Amino acid sequence: MSAPFGIAVVTQNVEYRRQAHSGRVVRIGLPGPGLTGSPRGYPEEVATLSPEQTGTRAAAGLAVLCTAHFLIGADGLAVAIALPSVQQDLGVPALDAQWLLSAYGSAFAGTLLLGGRAGDLYGRRRLLVLGMALFAGGSLAAGVAPGLVPLIAARLVQGLGAAAAVPAALALISSVFPPGRGRTRALSLLGAMATVGIMSGLVVGGLVTDLVGWRWVFLLTAAPAVAAAVSAARVLPEARAAERGSGPPDVAGAVLLAAGLMSFVLGVTRAAPDGFAAAGALVPLVAGAVLLAGFVLRERRAREPLVRFRILRLGRLRAASLGIGVNALAFTSIVYVGTQYLQNVQGYSALRAGMALLPIDVAAFLVALLAGGPLARRSPRAALSGAFVLTASALLWLARVPVPADYPTDLMAPLVVLGAALSAIFVVATHEAVADAPPDERGLASGVFETANHLFGGALGAAAYATVLATAAGTAQDPGGYRAAFLVATALVVVLGLPAAVQAGGRRSATPENPAPWR
Fold first, then answer.
1. What is the pTM of this model?
2. Taking the CB of residue 274, how many other CB atoms lie within 10 A of it?
3. What is the pLDDT, as a whole number, of residue 17?
4. Is pLDDT above 80 for 365?
5. Tell me: the pLDDT tens digits for 221-231?
6. Domain coordinates of the chain in residue numbers?
7. Is 165 helix (H, G, I), strand (E, B) or coil?
8. How many Cα atoms sit within 13 Å of 192 on the Cβ side?
9. Measured at the alpha carbon of residue 415, what is the angle toward residues 466 and 321, in degrees to the nearest 5?
Protein backbone atom coordinates (compact mmCIF):
# COMPACT_ATOMS: atom_id res chain seq x y z
CA MET A 1 0.00 0.00 0.00
CA SER A 2 1.30 3.38 -0.81
CA ALA A 3 1.17 5.76 2.07
CA PRO A 4 2.23 9.34 1.68
CA PHE A 5 3.69 9.13 5.11
CA GLY A 6 5.49 5.84 4.59
CA ILE A 7 8.67 4.67 2.95
CA ALA A 8 9.12 2.73 -0.26
CA VAL A 9 11.97 0.30 -0.78
CA VAL A 10 12.94 -0.25 -4.42
CA THR A 11 15.77 -2.68 -5.09
CA GLN A 12 17.75 -3.30 -8.18
CA ASN A 13 20.66 -5.39 -9.45
CA VAL A 14 24.10 -3.82 -9.16
CA GLU A 15 27.66 -4.99 -9.65
CA TYR A 16 30.24 -5.03 -6.86
CA ARG A 17 34.02 -5.06 -7.12
CA ARG A 18 36.54 -5.17 -4.31
CA GLN A 19 39.57 -2.94 -4.53
CA ALA A 20 42.58 -5.13 -3.89
CA HIS A 21 44.72 -2.36 -2.44
CA SER A 22 42.28 -1.30 0.26
CA GLY A 23 39.71 -4.03 0.76
CA ARG A 24 36.95 -1.49 0.22
CA VAL A 25 33.83 -2.54 -1.61
CA VAL A 26 32.99 -0.31 -4.58
CA ARG A 27 29.56 -0.55 -6.14
CA ILE A 28 29.60 0.03 -9.89
CA GLY A 29 26.58 1.59 -11.55
CA LEU A 30 23.54 2.70 -9.61
CA PRO A 31 24.17 3.65 -6.00
CA GLY A 32 21.81 2.08 -3.59
CA PRO A 33 18.26 0.89 -3.33
CA GLY A 34 15.45 3.31 -3.79
CA LEU A 35 16.29 6.96 -3.39
CA THR A 36 19.88 6.42 -2.45
CA GLY A 37 21.76 7.11 -5.64
CA SER A 38 23.27 10.19 -7.08
CA PRO A 39 21.50 11.43 -10.18
CA ARG A 40 24.41 10.52 -12.42
CA GLY A 41 24.83 6.97 -11.13
CA TYR A 42 28.35 7.44 -9.77
CA PRO A 43 30.27 4.47 -8.39
CA GLU A 44 29.79 4.39 -4.67
CA GLU A 45 32.34 3.65 -1.99
CA VAL A 46 30.66 1.47 0.61
CA ALA A 47 32.23 0.76 3.99
CA THR A 48 30.76 -2.74 4.27
CA LEU A 49 31.45 -4.36 7.62
CA SER A 50 34.11 -7.06 7.64
CA PRO A 51 33.10 -10.62 8.62
CA GLU A 52 34.46 -10.17 12.15
CA GLN A 53 32.37 -7.02 12.57
CA THR A 54 29.12 -8.60 11.44
CA GLY A 55 26.75 -10.16 13.91
CA THR A 56 26.19 -7.95 16.92
CA ARG A 57 27.21 -4.69 15.28
CA ALA A 58 25.31 -5.42 12.09
CA ALA A 59 22.23 -6.26 14.15
CA ALA A 60 22.65 -3.03 16.10
CA GLY A 61 22.96 -1.06 12.87
CA LEU A 62 19.85 -2.68 11.45
CA ALA A 63 17.98 -1.93 14.69
CA VAL A 64 18.87 1.75 14.33
CA LEU A 65 17.69 1.86 10.71
CA CYS A 66 14.47 0.03 11.60
CA THR A 67 13.84 2.46 14.46
CA ALA A 68 14.14 5.40 12.08
CA HIS A 69 11.69 3.83 9.63
CA PHE A 70 9.29 2.89 12.43
CA LEU A 71 9.19 6.43 13.83
CA ILE A 72 8.70 8.09 10.45
CA GLY A 73 6.09 5.53 9.43
CA ALA A 74 4.12 5.98 12.66
CA ASP A 75 4.23 9.77 12.71
CA GLY A 76 1.85 10.58 9.85
CA LEU A 77 -0.97 8.29 10.96
CA ALA A 78 -0.65 9.30 14.62
CA VAL A 79 -0.90 12.98 13.68
CA ALA A 80 -3.90 12.34 11.44
CA ILE A 81 -5.74 10.58 14.27
CA ALA A 82 -5.00 13.53 16.57
CA LEU A 83 -6.20 16.25 14.14
CA PRO A 84 -9.74 16.65 15.56
CA SER A 85 -8.27 17.13 19.05
CA VAL A 86 -5.76 19.67 17.72
CA GLN A 87 -8.56 21.62 16.05
CA GLN A 88 -10.65 21.67 19.22
CA ASP A 89 -7.77 22.53 21.55
CA LEU A 90 -6.34 25.34 19.40
CA GLY A 91 -9.73 26.55 18.17
CA VAL A 92 -8.81 26.39 14.48
CA PRO A 93 -10.91 25.25 11.50
CA ALA A 94 -10.19 21.99 9.70
CA LEU A 95 -9.02 23.93 6.65
CA ASP A 96 -6.15 25.38 8.67
CA ALA A 97 -5.40 22.23 10.68
CA GLN A 98 -4.79 20.22 7.49
CA TRP A 99 -1.53 22.16 7.15
CA LEU A 100 -0.10 19.77 9.74
CA LEU A 101 -0.20 17.15 6.98
CA SER A 102 0.37 19.36 3.92
CA ALA A 103 3.37 21.22 5.38
CA TYR A 104 5.05 17.95 6.31
CA GLY A 105 4.26 16.44 2.91
CA SER A 106 5.48 19.48 0.99
CA ALA A 107 8.78 19.58 2.88
CA PHE A 108 9.23 15.82 2.46
CA ALA A 109 8.40 15.75 -1.26
CA GLY A 110 10.28 18.94 -2.03
CA THR A 111 13.59 17.92 -0.46
CA LEU A 112 13.59 14.13 -0.84
CA LEU A 113 15.83 14.13 -3.93
CA LEU A 114 18.08 16.70 -2.26
CA GLY A 115 18.45 14.40 0.74
CA GLY A 116 19.61 11.53 -1.45
CA ARG A 117 22.10 13.71 -3.31
CA ALA A 118 23.46 15.24 -0.09
CA GLY A 119 24.05 11.74 1.24
CA ASP A 120 26.10 10.97 -1.87
CA LEU A 121 28.32 13.99 -1.24
CA TYR A 122 28.60 14.29 2.53
CA GLY A 123 27.97 10.77 3.81
CA ARG A 124 24.82 8.72 4.42
CA ARG A 125 25.44 8.20 8.14
CA ARG A 126 25.90 11.94 8.58
CA LEU A 127 22.61 12.61 6.77
CA LEU A 128 20.80 9.98 8.83
CA VAL A 129 22.06 11.52 12.08
CA LEU A 130 21.13 15.01 10.87
CA GLY A 131 17.73 13.84 9.67
CA MET A 132 16.79 12.11 12.90
CA ALA A 133 18.06 15.09 14.92
CA LEU A 134 15.85 17.41 12.88
CA PHE A 135 12.95 15.00 13.25
CA ALA A 136 13.45 14.92 17.02
CA GLY A 137 13.73 18.70 17.24
CA GLY A 138 10.61 19.17 15.15
CA SER A 139 8.73 16.67 17.32
CA LEU A 140 9.73 18.47 20.51
CA ALA A 141 8.84 21.87 19.06
CA ALA A 142 5.46 20.57 17.90
CA GLY A 143 4.70 19.17 21.34
CA VAL A 144 5.20 22.54 23.05
CA ALA A 145 3.94 24.79 20.22
CA PRO A 146 1.73 27.59 21.64
CA GLY A 147 -0.36 27.95 18.48
CA LEU A 148 -1.02 26.69 14.99
CA VAL A 149 1.70 28.64 13.15
CA PRO A 150 4.57 27.36 15.36
CA LEU A 151 3.06 23.89 15.11
CA ILE A 152 3.08 24.03 11.30
CA ALA A 153 6.68 25.29 11.37
CA ALA A 154 7.63 22.33 13.55
CA ARG A 155 5.98 19.96 11.07
CA LEU A 156 8.08 21.52 8.30
CA VAL A 157 11.20 20.71 10.29
CA GLN A 158 9.98 17.14 10.76
CA GLY A 159 9.44 16.82 7.01
CA LEU A 160 12.95 18.08 6.28
CA GLY A 161 14.36 15.59 8.76
CA ALA A 162 12.44 12.70 7.23
CA ALA A 163 13.62 13.67 3.73
CA ALA A 164 17.23 13.49 4.92
CA ALA A 165 16.84 10.30 6.95
CA VAL A 166 14.84 8.07 4.59
CA PRO A 167 17.23 7.86 1.60
CA ALA A 168 20.22 7.67 3.93
CA ALA A 169 18.71 4.76 5.87
CA LEU A 170 17.98 2.81 2.71
CA ALA A 171 21.51 3.35 1.39
CA LEU A 172 23.15 2.34 4.66
CA ILE A 173 21.67 -1.15 4.38
CA SER A 174 24.31 -1.68 1.67
CA SER A 175 27.02 -0.53 4.07
CA VAL A 176 26.03 -2.98 6.79
CA PHE A 177 25.05 -6.02 4.71
CA PRO A 178 26.93 -7.32 1.65
CA PRO A 179 24.96 -8.52 -1.39
CA GLY A 180 22.95 -11.68 -0.87
CA ARG A 181 20.21 -13.06 1.31
CA GLY A 182 21.30 -11.06 4.33
CA ARG A 183 20.71 -7.79 2.54
CA THR A 184 17.39 -9.01 1.13
CA ARG A 185 16.21 -10.00 4.61
CA ALA A 186 17.38 -6.65 6.00
CA LEU A 187 15.46 -4.73 3.33
CA SER A 188 12.37 -6.82 4.02
CA LEU A 189 12.65 -6.16 7.75
CA LEU A 190 13.12 -2.45 7.08
CA GLY A 191 9.91 -2.36 5.05
CA ALA A 192 8.09 -4.45 7.65
CA MET A 193 9.08 -2.06 10.44
CA ALA A 194 7.69 0.87 8.48
CA THR A 195 4.48 -1.13 8.11
CA VAL A 196 4.37 -1.86 11.82
CA GLY A 197 4.98 1.84 12.43
CA ILE A 198 2.00 2.81 10.28
CA MET A 199 -0.24 0.32 12.08
CA SER A 200 1.08 1.39 15.48
CA GLY A 201 0.55 5.04 14.63
CA LEU A 202 -3.18 4.48 14.30
CA VAL A 203 -3.53 2.76 17.67
CA VAL A 204 -0.84 4.48 19.73
CA GLY A 205 -1.78 7.89 18.34
CA GLY A 206 -5.39 7.34 19.31
CA LEU A 207 -4.51 5.96 22.74
CA VAL A 208 -2.11 8.80 23.58
CA THR A 209 -4.55 11.44 22.34
CA ASP A 210 -7.35 10.02 24.48
CA LEU A 211 -5.26 9.51 27.63
CA VAL A 212 -2.86 12.47 27.82
CA GLY A 213 -3.62 14.73 24.85
CA TRP A 214 -2.38 15.33 21.31
CA ARG A 215 0.82 17.09 22.36
CA TRP A 216 2.24 13.81 23.62
CA VAL A 217 1.84 12.30 20.15
CA PHE A 218 4.80 14.52 19.24
CA LEU A 219 6.66 14.54 22.56
CA LEU A 220 6.84 10.76 22.80
CA THR A 221 8.58 10.66 19.41
CA ALA A 222 11.41 13.01 20.35
CA ALA A 223 13.38 10.75 22.72
CA PRO A 224 13.47 7.66 20.44
CA ALA A 225 14.49 9.89 17.51
CA VAL A 226 17.38 11.32 19.55
CA ALA A 227 18.39 7.80 20.56
CA ALA A 228 18.35 6.73 16.91
CA ALA A 229 20.56 9.68 15.93
CA VAL A 230 23.09 9.00 18.71
CA SER A 231 23.13 5.26 18.02
CA ALA A 232 23.56 5.80 14.28
CA ALA A 233 26.68 7.86 14.91
CA ARG A 234 28.11 5.07 17.08
CA VAL A 235 27.30 1.83 15.27
CA LEU A 236 26.83 2.59 11.56
CA PRO A 237 29.68 2.89 9.05
CA GLU A 238 30.00 5.93 6.83
CA ALA A 239 29.40 5.65 3.07
CA ARG A 240 29.27 8.12 0.24
CA ALA A 241 29.71 8.25 -3.53
CA ALA A 242 33.31 7.65 -4.62
CA GLU A 243 32.86 10.06 -7.56
CA ARG A 244 30.90 13.07 -6.36
CA GLY A 245 30.35 15.07 -9.50
CA SER A 246 31.37 18.61 -10.22
CA GLY A 247 29.34 20.64 -7.77
CA PRO A 248 27.27 20.76 -4.58
CA PRO A 249 23.66 19.55 -4.38
CA ASP A 250 21.08 21.82 -5.97
CA VAL A 251 19.66 23.43 -2.85
CA ALA A 252 18.07 26.24 -4.87
CA GLY A 253 16.13 23.70 -6.93
CA ALA A 254 14.83 22.00 -3.79
CA VAL A 255 13.77 25.35 -2.32
CA LEU A 256 11.89 26.24 -5.52
CA LEU A 257 10.12 22.87 -5.54
CA ALA A 258 9.11 22.95 -1.86
CA ALA A 259 8.05 26.62 -1.99
CA GLY A 260 6.06 26.03 -5.17
CA LEU A 261 4.24 23.10 -3.60
CA MET A 262 3.36 25.03 -0.45
CA SER A 263 2.18 28.06 -2.42
CA PHE A 264 0.00 25.84 -4.60
CA VAL A 265 -1.44 24.10 -1.51
CA LEU A 266 -2.22 27.52 0.02
CA GLY A 267 -4.11 28.51 -3.12
CA VAL A 268 -6.15 25.30 -3.09
CA THR A 269 -7.14 25.74 0.55
CA ARG A 270 -8.02 29.43 0.10
CA ALA A 271 -10.42 28.49 -2.70
CA ALA A 272 -12.87 27.02 -0.18
CA PRO A 273 -13.99 30.30 1.43
CA ASP A 274 -13.20 32.65 -1.45
CA GLY A 275 -13.44 30.69 -4.71
CA PHE A 276 -10.60 30.04 -7.15
CA ALA A 277 -11.07 33.40 -8.89
CA ALA A 278 -10.58 35.40 -5.67
CA ALA A 279 -7.22 37.02 -5.04
CA GLY A 280 -6.70 34.98 -1.88
CA ALA A 281 -6.63 31.80 -3.95
CA LEU A 282 -5.46 33.05 -7.34
CA VAL A 283 -2.30 34.82 -6.17
CA PRO A 284 -0.75 31.81 -4.39
CA LEU A 285 -1.82 29.50 -7.23
CA VAL A 286 -0.06 31.70 -9.79
CA ALA A 287 2.94 32.10 -7.49
CA GLY A 288 3.12 28.34 -7.07
CA ALA A 289 3.00 27.83 -10.83
CA VAL A 290 5.80 30.38 -11.31
CA LEU A 291 7.96 28.75 -8.64
CA LEU A 292 7.44 25.27 -10.09
CA ALA A 293 8.25 26.59 -13.57
CA GLY A 294 11.39 28.10 -12.07
CA PHE A 295 12.26 24.69 -10.65
CA VAL A 296 11.97 23.11 -14.11
CA LEU A 297 14.16 25.80 -15.69
CA ARG A 298 16.68 25.52 -12.86
CA GLU A 299 16.97 21.76 -13.25
CA ARG A 300 17.47 22.01 -17.00
CA ARG A 301 20.43 24.36 -16.51
CA ALA A 302 21.95 23.14 -13.24
CA ARG A 303 25.35 21.46 -13.36
CA GLU A 304 24.22 18.84 -10.83
CA PRO A 305 20.40 18.74 -11.16
CA LEU A 306 18.19 16.92 -8.70
CA VAL A 307 16.30 15.35 -11.60
CA ARG A 308 16.98 14.99 -15.30
CA PHE A 309 13.64 15.37 -17.03
CA ARG A 310 14.51 13.05 -19.89
CA ILE A 311 13.79 10.23 -17.43
CA LEU A 312 10.09 11.09 -17.87
CA ARG A 313 10.26 9.82 -21.44
CA LEU A 314 10.09 6.31 -19.98
CA GLY A 315 6.46 5.31 -20.38
CA ARG A 316 6.37 2.71 -17.63
CA LEU A 317 7.95 5.12 -15.15
CA ARG A 318 5.30 7.73 -16.03
CA ALA A 319 2.56 5.15 -15.53
CA ALA A 320 4.05 3.96 -12.23
CA SER A 321 4.51 7.50 -10.90
CA LEU A 322 0.96 8.49 -11.81
CA GLY A 323 -0.33 5.23 -10.37
CA ILE A 324 1.47 5.64 -7.06
CA GLY A 325 0.28 9.26 -6.90
CA VAL A 326 -3.35 8.19 -7.33
CA ASN A 327 -2.74 5.45 -4.79
CA ALA A 328 -1.50 8.07 -2.33
CA LEU A 329 -4.56 10.25 -3.00
CA ALA A 330 -6.83 7.30 -2.21
CA PHE A 331 -4.96 6.48 0.99
CA THR A 332 -4.99 10.13 2.07
CA SER A 333 -8.78 10.08 1.82
CA ILE A 334 -8.70 7.55 4.67
CA VAL A 335 -5.86 9.20 6.59
CA TYR A 336 -7.42 12.66 6.50
CA VAL A 337 -11.13 12.30 5.72
CA GLY A 338 -11.71 8.92 7.33
CA THR A 339 -10.15 9.73 10.70
CA GLN A 340 -12.24 12.89 11.04
CA TYR A 341 -15.40 11.20 9.78
CA LEU A 342 -15.19 8.45 12.39
CA GLN A 343 -14.65 10.91 15.24
CA ASN A 344 -16.87 13.82 14.18
CA VAL A 345 -19.79 11.96 12.56
CA GLN A 346 -19.79 8.41 13.90
CA GLY A 347 -18.83 9.58 17.41
CA TYR A 348 -15.74 7.39 17.82
CA SER A 349 -12.98 8.29 20.26
CA ALA A 350 -9.48 8.76 18.83
CA LEU A 351 -8.45 5.28 20.02
CA ARG A 352 -11.56 3.62 18.65
CA ALA A 353 -11.08 5.40 15.31
CA GLY A 354 -7.51 4.13 15.11
CA MET A 355 -8.62 0.59 15.90
CA ALA A 356 -11.44 0.85 13.35
CA LEU A 357 -8.99 1.69 10.57
CA LEU A 358 -6.59 -1.17 11.34
CA PRO A 359 -8.21 -3.58 8.82
CA ILE A 360 -6.89 -1.47 5.94
CA ASP A 361 -3.31 -1.97 7.12
CA VAL A 362 -3.76 -5.64 7.99
CA ALA A 363 -5.27 -6.39 4.57
CA ALA A 364 -2.50 -4.45 2.82
CA PHE A 365 0.21 -6.27 4.75
CA LEU A 366 -1.26 -9.71 4.01
CA VAL A 367 -1.65 -9.00 0.30
CA ALA A 368 1.95 -7.82 0.02
CA LEU A 369 3.17 -10.80 2.03
CA LEU A 370 1.14 -13.54 0.35
CA ALA A 371 0.42 -12.18 -3.12
CA GLY A 372 3.36 -9.87 -3.80
CA GLY A 373 5.20 -12.43 -5.92
CA PRO A 374 2.23 -13.46 -8.09
CA LEU A 375 1.25 -9.81 -8.57
CA ALA A 376 4.76 -8.93 -9.70
CA ARG A 377 4.58 -11.65 -12.37
CA ARG A 378 1.21 -10.66 -13.81
CA SER A 379 0.52 -8.20 -16.59
CA PRO A 380 0.96 -4.75 -14.98
CA ARG A 381 -1.88 -3.34 -17.07
CA ALA A 382 -4.35 -6.01 -15.97
CA ALA A 383 -3.25 -5.97 -12.32
CA LEU A 384 -3.41 -2.19 -12.02
CA SER A 385 -6.75 -1.98 -13.82
CA GLY A 386 -8.34 -4.50 -11.48
CA ALA A 387 -6.83 -2.89 -8.39
CA PHE A 388 -7.98 0.60 -9.36
CA VAL A 389 -11.51 -0.69 -10.02
CA LEU A 390 -11.53 -2.24 -6.53
CA THR A 391 -10.16 0.99 -5.04
CA ALA A 392 -12.87 3.11 -6.66
CA SER A 393 -15.55 0.61 -5.58
CA ALA A 394 -14.38 0.67 -1.96
CA LEU A 395 -14.30 4.48 -1.85
CA LEU A 396 -17.78 4.65 -3.38
CA TRP A 397 -18.92 2.16 -0.72
CA LEU A 398 -17.54 4.44 2.02
CA ALA A 399 -19.34 7.42 0.49
CA ARG A 400 -22.66 5.63 1.09
CA VAL A 401 -22.10 4.61 4.74
CA PRO A 402 -25.16 5.40 6.90
CA VAL A 403 -25.13 7.17 10.26
CA PRO A 404 -24.90 5.37 12.60
CA ALA A 405 -22.92 2.70 10.78
CA ASP A 406 -22.80 -1.04 11.36
CA TYR A 407 -19.04 -1.48 11.64
CA PRO A 408 -18.55 -5.00 10.14
CA THR A 409 -20.61 -4.44 6.99
CA ASP A 410 -20.54 -0.66 6.51
CA LEU A 411 -16.94 0.11 7.46
CA MET A 412 -14.70 -2.91 7.94
CA ALA A 413 -15.65 -4.59 4.66
CA PRO A 414 -14.79 -1.63 2.37
CA LEU A 415 -11.63 -0.94 4.39
CA VAL A 416 -10.43 -4.51 3.81
CA VAL A 417 -11.12 -4.21 0.07
CA LEU A 418 -9.39 -0.83 -0.05
CA GLY A 419 -6.31 -2.05 1.83
CA ALA A 420 -5.92 -5.07 -0.43
CA ALA A 421 -6.33 -2.99 -3.60
CA LEU A 422 -3.91 -0.25 -2.52
CA SER A 423 -1.31 -2.84 -1.58
CA ALA A 424 -1.63 -4.50 -4.99
CA ILE A 425 -1.17 -1.13 -6.72
CA PHE A 426 1.93 -0.43 -4.66
CA VAL A 427 3.55 -3.78 -5.45
CA VAL A 428 2.92 -3.53 -9.20
CA ALA A 429 3.80 0.17 -9.47
CA THR A 430 7.05 -0.33 -7.57
CA HIS A 431 8.17 -2.91 -10.11
CA GLU A 432 7.05 -0.77 -13.04
CA ALA A 433 8.99 2.27 -11.78
CA VAL A 434 12.35 0.77 -12.78
CA ALA A 435 11.19 -1.76 -15.40
CA ASP A 436 12.40 0.16 -18.46
CA ALA A 437 14.99 2.43 -16.82
CA PRO A 438 18.65 1.99 -17.83
CA PRO A 439 20.76 0.48 -15.02
CA ASP A 440 22.52 3.78 -14.32
CA GLU A 441 19.23 5.69 -13.98
CA ARG A 442 17.19 3.35 -11.78
CA GLY A 443 18.01 5.33 -8.66
CA LEU A 444 16.72 8.50 -10.31
CA ALA A 445 13.62 6.63 -11.53
CA SER A 446 12.81 5.41 -8.03
CA GLY A 447 13.40 8.94 -6.71
CA VAL A 448 10.86 10.38 -9.15
CA PHE A 449 8.47 7.58 -8.17
CA GLU A 450 8.72 8.25 -4.44
CA THR A 451 8.48 12.02 -4.91
CA ALA A 452 5.20 11.51 -6.79
CA ASN A 453 3.95 9.47 -3.84
CA HIS A 454 4.52 12.25 -1.32
CA LEU A 455 3.57 15.02 -3.74
CA PHE A 456 0.09 13.65 -4.49
CA GLY A 457 -0.50 12.28 -1.01
CA GLY A 458 0.88 14.30 1.86
CA ALA A 459 1.27 17.60 0.00
CA LEU A 460 -1.76 17.98 -2.30
CA GLY A 461 -4.17 15.28 -1.14
CA ALA A 462 -4.92 16.66 2.31
CA ALA A 463 -5.35 20.18 0.92
CA ALA A 464 -7.77 19.03 -1.77
CA TYR A 465 -9.92 17.03 0.64
CA ALA A 466 -9.90 19.84 3.21
CA THR A 467 -11.20 22.19 0.53
CA VAL A 468 -13.99 19.76 -0.36
CA LEU A 469 -14.96 19.37 3.30
CA ALA A 470 -14.99 23.13 3.90
CA THR A 471 -17.11 23.69 0.79
CA ALA A 472 -19.61 20.84 1.12
CA ALA A 473 -20.06 20.52 4.89
CA GLY A 474 -21.98 23.01 7.00
CA THR A 475 -20.35 21.78 10.22
CA ALA A 476 -17.71 19.25 11.23
CA GLN A 477 -20.54 16.86 12.11
CA ASP A 478 -22.23 17.12 8.70
CA PRO A 479 -21.86 13.74 6.93
CA GLY A 480 -22.50 15.36 3.55
CA GLY A 481 -19.04 16.89 3.37
CA TYR A 482 -17.31 13.58 4.07
CA ARG A 483 -19.44 11.80 1.49
CA ALA A 484 -18.51 14.46 -1.05
CA ALA A 485 -14.81 13.98 -0.24
CA PHE A 486 -15.05 10.22 -0.75
CA LEU A 487 -16.87 10.81 -4.05
CA VAL A 488 -14.08 13.15 -5.16
CA ALA A 489 -11.54 10.48 -4.23
CA THR A 490 -13.53 7.94 -6.27
CA ALA A 491 -13.57 10.27 -9.27
CA LEU A 492 -9.82 10.89 -9.04
CA VAL A 493 -9.13 7.16 -9.03
CA VAL A 494 -11.30 6.64 -12.11
CA VAL A 495 -10.06 9.69 -14.04
CA LEU A 496 -6.35 9.33 -13.21
CA GLY A 497 -5.86 5.75 -12.03
CA LEU A 498 -7.34 3.88 -14.97
CA PRO A 499 -5.32 5.89 -17.55
CA ALA A 500 -2.20 5.09 -15.52
CA ALA A 501 -3.08 1.40 -15.76
CA VAL A 502 -3.55 1.66 -19.53
CA GLN A 503 -0.10 3.27 -19.89
CA ALA A 504 1.55 0.45 -17.91
CA GLY A 505 3.26 -2.43 -19.66
CA GLY A 506 1.07 -5.16 -21.10
CA ARG A 507 3.52 -7.88 -20.13
CA ARG A 508 5.91 -8.36 -17.24
CA SER A 509 9.55 -7.83 -18.11
CA ALA A 510 11.54 -11.00 -18.75
CA THR A 511 13.96 -9.97 -16.00
CA PRO A 512 11.84 -8.41 -13.29
CA GLU A 513 13.36 -6.45 -10.51
CA ASN A 514 13.48 -7.79 -7.01
CA PRO A 515 10.18 -7.28 -5.20
CA ALA A 516 10.03 -4.35 -2.85
CA PRO A 517 8.77 -4.83 0.71
CA TRP A 518 5.51 -3.09 1.40
CA ARG A 519 5.77 -0.15 3.74
1. 0.84
2. 12
3. 35
4. yes
5. 999 999 999 99
6. 15-250+302-503
7. helix
8. 10
9. 65
